């Protein structure tokens, strides 16, 4: 992966931002509701830079990254993965995001730019999705085949449609809060999310209370921009449910693509295609990873040696 440097070679700030980006797992309501909260400022900023996104595209894809990051809290194996795929008729067109047990998140929008006629009149993101489907797929290392479930988009909101997926497909009451906060110059100042899910034996009244609390949190990203920590927010907002933290781990915009992997792809092309590339170019041949937008150039000399 080739990351764009958003820190302008300031190693100290890079380490500070990396230390802040974490996912915190907790349990509450007498161990009948599990949850996670993620601080994702660096992840979303790096995602934006690598994919060269405008504010609207950053908001949509950023929420999907945060959701995928939160879902890593339920992965047990380091090689486990979970993917979110949206196909829709609206200007978003769709998106594909995946995360793994290492806390690595990658993915992309199906369109480089979300085209809308009057951005100033946009009141909510729901009109950007239109009709479509949300598919959630788990790739678990101890199972033979991946498990996949799909629901119709009902809300045009990643948070609400994911909650609906878990209720319809897995019969588990679940709640999400996803937030990307911009300042007046459209720079990201805070990003993060909360995930809550009922465990067996959960009291319905406690679930209703938790749902009211999570919906009452206006802008998690803005709270982070003011210096609030994930622990402070959970302990304050959910105090009536006595939350207890279990641990925290890394979350990062990261893709395992590399020039070596791209070489393997090129080497696997049929002989006729390899010959055509060498004869017609143009050079350098550029192979781009759609998951992270890293671009790998290959000169004619590189390809002659590779195809030899």
Describe the protein's architecture and organization.
- This protein is of the alpha+beta class and 308 residues long.
- The model has no long low-confidence stretch (mean pLDDT 95).
- The chain has a six-stranded mixed beta sheet, with helices on one face. Strands 8-9-2-1-10 form a five-stranded antiparallel beta sheet, sandwiched between helices. The chain has a two-stranded antiparallel ribbon with strand order 12-13.
- The relative contact order is 0.17.
- The protein is globular and about 70 Å long.
- It has two domains: 243 residues, Hsp33 domain (3-Layer(bab) Sandwich); 49 residues, CBS domain Like (Alpha-Beta Complex), CATH 3.90.1280.10.
- It has eleven helices and 13 strands.
SSE diagram, text form:
Blueprint: H1 11-20, E1 22-28, E2 33-39, H2 41-51, H3 55-71, E3 81-88, E4 94-100, E5 104-109, H4 126-129, E6 132-139, E7 147-152, H5 158-169, E8 174-182, E9 188-198, H6 204-216, H7 220-225, H8 230-237, E10 244-250, E11 252-253, H9 259-267, H10 271-280, E12 285-288, E13 295-298, H11 300-307
Helix pairs in contact: 2-3
Q: So, CATH architecture of the largest domain?
A: 3-Layer(bab) Sandwich
Number of helices: 11
Sheet/helix structural class: alpha+beta
Major β-sheet annotation? 6 strands, mixed
Strands of the widest sheet, in order across it, are 7-6-3-4-5-11
- Average pLDDT across residues? 95
Helix share, percent: 25-40%
Flag low-confidence runs: none
Give the topology string: H per helix, E per strand. HEEHHEEEHEEHEEHHHEEHHEEH
CATH evolutionary superfamily of the largest domain: Hsp33 domain
What is the radius of gyration? 21 Å
Q: Roughly what fraction of the amino acids lie in strands?
A: 25-35%
- Tell me the distance between the termini: 26 Å
In total, the number of domains comes to 2
């Amino acid at each position: 992966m080739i990351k764009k440097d958003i820190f302008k070679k300031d190693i100290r700030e890079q380490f500070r931002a990396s230390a802040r980006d974490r996912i915190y797992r907790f349990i509450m309501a007498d161990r009948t509701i599990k949850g996670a909260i993620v601080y994702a400022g660096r992840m979303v900023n790096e995602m934006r830079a690598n994919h060269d996104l405008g504010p609207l595209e950053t908001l949509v894809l950023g929420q999907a990254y945060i959701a995928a990051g939160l879902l890593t809290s339920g992965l047990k194996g380091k090689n486990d993965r979970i993917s979110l795929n949206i196909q829709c008729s609206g200007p978003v067109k769709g998106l594909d995001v995946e995360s793994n047990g290492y806390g690595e998140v990658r993915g992309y929008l199906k369109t480089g730019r979300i085209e809308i006629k009057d951005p100033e009149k946009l009141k909510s993101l729901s009109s950007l999705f239109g009709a479509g489907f949300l598919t959630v797929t788990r790739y678990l290392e101890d199972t033979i085949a991946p498990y996949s479930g799909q629901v119709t988009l009902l809300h045009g909101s990643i948070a609400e449609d994911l909650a609906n997926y878990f209720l319809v497909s897995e019969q588990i009451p679940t709640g999400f809060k996803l937030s990307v906060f911009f300042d007046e110059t459209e720079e990201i100042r805070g990003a993060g999310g909360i995930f809550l899910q009922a465990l067996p034996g959960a009291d319905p009244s406690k679930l209703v209370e938790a749902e009211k609390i999570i919906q009452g949190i206006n802008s998690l990203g803005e709270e982070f921009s003011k210096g609030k920590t994930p622990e402070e927010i959970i302990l304050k907002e959910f105090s009536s449910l006595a939350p207890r933290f279990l641990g925290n781990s890394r979350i990062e915009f990261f893709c395992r693509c590399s020039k070596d992997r791209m070489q393997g792809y090129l080497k696997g092309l049929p002989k006729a295609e390899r010959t055509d590339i060498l004869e017609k170019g143009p050079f350098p041949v550029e192979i781009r990873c759609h998951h992270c937008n890293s671009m790998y150039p290959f000169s004619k000399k590189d390809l002659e040696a590779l195809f030899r």
